[in-house]
Amino acid sequence: MDDPRAQRLFGDRLVAPGDLAASPFRVDRDRIVASPFFARLAGVTQVISPGGAGLLVHNRMTHSLKVAQVARAIAERVDPGLADKLGGCDPDVVEAAALAHDLGHPPFGHLGERVLDRVARQRLKLLDGFEGNAQSYRIVTSTEIRGQATLGLNLTNAVRAAILKYPWTRRDPQRFMDPPPRGAAPPADDPEGGSPKFGAYSTEAGDMRAARAPFAGRVADWQQTVEASVMDTADDIAYAIHDLEDVHRVGVLQQGAVATELMAWQRWGTETDLNRAGGAIESLRRQLHRKDGWMADDEAFAAAVELVRAELVDGLLARPFDGSLEAEAQVAAFAATWTRRLVDSVETIADPAVRSGHVQLATAQWHEVQILKFVQNRFVLARPDLALHQRGQGRLVASLVEALMAWLVDPDEEERIPSRLRDLVELAEAELPEGTPERMDRARGRAVVDFVAGLTDNQAVGLMQALSGKSRQLWTDAFVL
C-alpha cells in the first residue's frame, strides 16, 4: 500500500457492525471508551488514592479525559505542513491515544507499577518484567478476547503508533545510544536490566513495528510519531497542573514549605551546600543541565521559579482550600490559566533533540513544567506519611501475585481456577514459542501479572482479603474474578 494515509489504517478495516462513527479514528476512540479497561480506570489511583480523599481527587479515568482534552487542543495548533511530512497529525488519533495511554496502569498508580515490575522480573523470571505503557499496548492489541481471536481493540496503525511514548522494547538497542532517548537509559544500579521505560513487550514487538511501518523514513525509529508526541506533551501538562489541584484540595501542599524552598534558592543559587533550604531546587537545576542540556537554560529556570512562586505560592496556596465556591473557582482559574499558557506555547520541531519529540513546549514553559513537577515530587511524593501508606499497598500487590501463583499450581484447585485467569494463562502460553524454558511457569507468571494489573484499587484490596481468609463477603467477592 503506497498511500501513507491509507497505511495509517489497519489492514482494510474502516468500520464494523456496531461502530457508530464513520471515521476509522473516531471508531478507535469509541472502542477505547466502551472498553471495560477504560471503565476500570475510574477506580485506579492517579496520585492520591481515591478511597482516602473521596471524589475530589483525580483518578486515572479523569486524568485520561483531561489529557485527551489538552491533546486535542495541541493537535489543532500543530503546523499542518510539517506534520504531513512527518506522517500526519489527526486530532481524532491524538484524542484516542490520550484516552488509551493509561489503560495498563495497575492498582495504586506508579507504586503498583514498580512493585509488579520487581516481582515479575525477580520472582516470576519474566525478562520483560512489567511496564505500564507496554501493558497498555498489550491491552489494545492482545488481551481483550473476542470469540476465538485475540485482536485487542483492533485499532488503526495510526492510533496504535500514537500510544507509543517509548517505541521500543525493553531489550532494543535504543538504550545504547549516546545520549539515549528519554526513558531508555538503564539505571546505574541495574545496567543489564534493559530500558526502564518501553512501549511494548517482546510478545507485541511485531505489532509495534507494523503500527509504525507507515512512518518509516519520516520519523526516526526511536522517535515518537507527531501524534504520540502531542499525547506525551499533553500528559506532561495534565500531570503538572491537575495533580497539584488534588494535593491543594486535600491540604497536603503547604504554602510555607514551598515558599521557603523557592525563595531561598534565589538567595544562594550559586552555593554548593545542597542540604540547606533551596538545595533541592538547586539540585534540580543541575540535573536538568546533566540530562537535558539541549533545553536547560539558567535564565529560563530562574524565571520559571519566580513565576511558580508568584502564581502558586502567593496565589493558589495563599488561602487554604475550604470547599467553598470561591475556593473551587480559584482552583479552576489556576488550572485554566496554566493549561492555556502551556498549550499556546507548544512548537512543532522538524529535527528535535534525541530526548525530545517533534512537538514540544517552548523553552520558558518547559522549565515551568519542571518546576511544577518539582513542587509535587518534593512536597507531596516524598512525604513519610505517604510512604507509610504506599509501603502497605506495595506489600499487598506482591502478596496478591504470590497468592494467585499458589492457586494456579495447586493440583487440587485445577477445576476451580477463575475463568479469566485461566484464559490469560492460555493466551500467554500461546504467545511463547515451543521449547521456551519453563514455558508453563512463564505463562502463569504473565497471566497473573495481567490479571493483577487489570484490577482496581478496591478490587485488589478485596481480593487479597478474600485470599487471606479475612473477608466474610462469600458471594460478593466473586465480582473480582
From TrEMBL:
Which keywords has UniProt assigned to this entry? Answer: Hydrolase
Highest rank taxon of the organism? Bacteria
Q: Which Pfam families match?
A: HD, HD_assoc
For biological process, the GO terms are: dGTP catabolic process
Every copy of the HD domain together lies at: 60-240
**SMART domains the record matches:** HDc (SM00471)
The answer to whether keyword Hydrolase applies is yes
Listed EC numbers: 3.1.5.1
What is a GO molecular function of this protein?
Answer: dGTPase activity
Q: Which InterPro entries match?
A: dGTPase (IPR006261), dGTPase-like (IPR050135), HD/PDEase_dom (IPR003607), HD_domain (IPR006674), PHydrolase_assoc_dom (IPR026875)
Q: If you read the UniProt record, what top EC class would you report for this enzyme, in one word? A: hydrolase
Which stretches of sequence are listed as region Disordered?
Answer: 171-201
Q: Name the chain's protein.
A: dGTPase
Taxonomic source organism: Paractinoplanes abujensis
Species classification: Bacteria, Bacillati, Actinomycetota, Actinomycetes, Micromonosporales
